[in-house]
Design goal:
Layout: H1 2-42, H2 47-73, H3 77-95, H4 99-125, H5 131-134, H6 139-158, H7 164-186, H8 196-205, H9 207-210, H10 224-238, H11 247-264, H12 273-283, H13 286-306
Helix pairs in contact: 1-2, 1-3, 1-6, 2-4, 2-13, 3-4, 4-6, 6-12, 7-11, 7-12, 8-10, 11-12
């Protein structure tokens, strides 16, 4: 009896640890989101804004990867429901007790409830059991709804009462700066002031990035004719002239065309067009979310196994078959 009591106590401690980690990850994520809002729209964040954005992305993926594992490991949906309620409390804490925050809270509860149910149902219907597989069930829908909540939180926190005329230009500026900072990290030698032809040359030199602008495998990236043809192809697609223009001109045009011109015209009909613009911006990086969440799910599981929080055991499963 004493042994069973000890086992139960250990299990309760582990469940409490899961609850604490879930609350902590959710709180840090929403805090970073709020800080990011302020940096982007109240001050010029510069590189600080990029760092906060990266940390927000990291904790978003850590949080989702953690929940995907917990929904599997807790087994009991009663325990998972408790986790769902707890991890969404930080949203209230960060955005305050108001009607909008309550609506966002309810949407988040519904989101994690549906996702948790799908994971739980998959576990019961499939063998062998694997949290890395079951956690993917419903992941895309969960990420999409979560991004919508973030977008409308962003909009209400900064452009309250539908001030899209203020919100979208700041979003454009933020997106342009973030794009330049990201490209400078991904493409050696890139900066926003270089000419388009030089930027094309840098891209063509890189075998990985080259495939995004040309289908040719073997080309000479230093050939002026190749660079000219690549630029002409880009000009034809966009309907603009890029001769002697800078990389900043191209990025600014793409962002304004994507974020501003496409959605600002709807602001008189739908004041949340700015939120929709931000949602579409976030959706551009969906591939990164899925990749990181899946990778971090594996990291969480390895960590749990190494620290003996969870352990492997063998089960004999009966399979019903129809035979002659």
């Amino acid at each position: 009896m004493a042994y069973l009591k000890t086992i139960n106590q250990q299990r309760y401690l582990k469940i409490a640890l899961f609850y604490f980690l879930g609350f902590f990850l959710s709180f840090i994520f929403w805090l970073l989101i709020k800080v990011n809002f302020d940096l982007v729209f109240l001050i010029n964040g510069g590189m600080t804004s990029l760092i906060i954005s990266f940390l927000s992305l990291l904790f978003f993926c850590l949080f989702f990867a953690f929940f995907a594992n917990c929904a599997y490991l807790l087994k009991s949906f009663y325990l998972t429901s408790g986790l769902i309620l707890l991890v969404n409390v930080p949203y209230f804490v960060i955005f305050g007790l108001n009607l909008f925050a309550f609506e966002g809270f309810l949407i988040l509860i519904l989101l994690f409830y549906i996702w948790g149910k799908r994971i739980n149902h998959y576990d019961k219907q499939h063998a062998p059991f694997n949290p890395l597989i079951s956690g993917r069930i419903g992941l895309r829908s969960a990420v999409t709804i979560f991004l919508l909540v973030i977008s409308f939180s962003f909009y209400v926190a900064i452009a309250y009462e539908g001030e899209a005329g203020y919100f979208i230009p700041r979003l454009e500026k933020y997106t342009v700066n973030l794009s330049h900072q990201g490209l400078s990290l991904l493409i050696p030698g890139y900066n926003k002031n270089i000419k388009i032809d030089n930027a094309i040359h840098l891209i063509l030199k890189n075998k990985f990035w080259r495939k995004f602008i040309t289908a040719e495998d073997e080309i000479n990236p230093s050939d002026p004719q190749i660079i000219l043809l690549t630029r002409k192809s880009l000009e034809d697609k966009l309907g603009i002239s890029l001769n002697n223009e800078s990389a900043d001109y191209l990025i600014s045009y793409l962002v304004k065309n994507y974020v501003g011109d496409t959605l600002m015209k709807y602001q008189n009909i739908f004041s949340g067009a700015a939120a929709l613009a931000f949602f579409l911006f976030l959706k551009l990086f969906s591939w990164a979310y899925y990749f990181l969440i899946r990778g971090l799910s594996w990291v969480w599981l390895r960590l749990f196994l190494l620290t003996k929080i969870v352990s492997k055991k063998t089960e004999t499963i009966e399979i019903e078959k129809i035979v002659i």
